[in-house]
Amino acid sequence: MTTEADALGELIGLRTRVPQLTGALAASTDGLVLAHDTAGTEAESVAALTAAALGVALRLAEATGQGEFRELLIRGEDGYVALYAAGSSAVLTLIAEPRVNVGRLHLEARRSGARIGEVVDSALERLENT
What we know:
Layout: H1 3-17, E1 21-28, E2 33-37, H2 43-63, E3 71-76, E4 79-86, E5 90-96, H3 102-128
Antiparallel strand pairs: 1-2, 1-5, 3-4, 4-5
């Protein structure tokens, strides 16, 4: 399988495990879409905004002495947007309904982020070794 197919499979599985998700996207840390399951949402725009939010989150975590970025949760009037570290080169962005169980969201997203991170980091390592 390809990196994109593996990441997409993980996103689809995540949306199955957390049915209140309305969108899921894996992006590079610089804002390029790696895979997405985001019907009704423009993936490229979300990936670009993810990179911008990640930049602020990284600086804020560093400035406050909280260590490396792990996750960012945004609660809006109509639901949630959550960003999770996915290895060293990717970010998992999730869009959820307001009734989502946030604890379940974190649990499943952290697992999926780790899997996506392994896939992406492994692919980048293979590219560097060729």
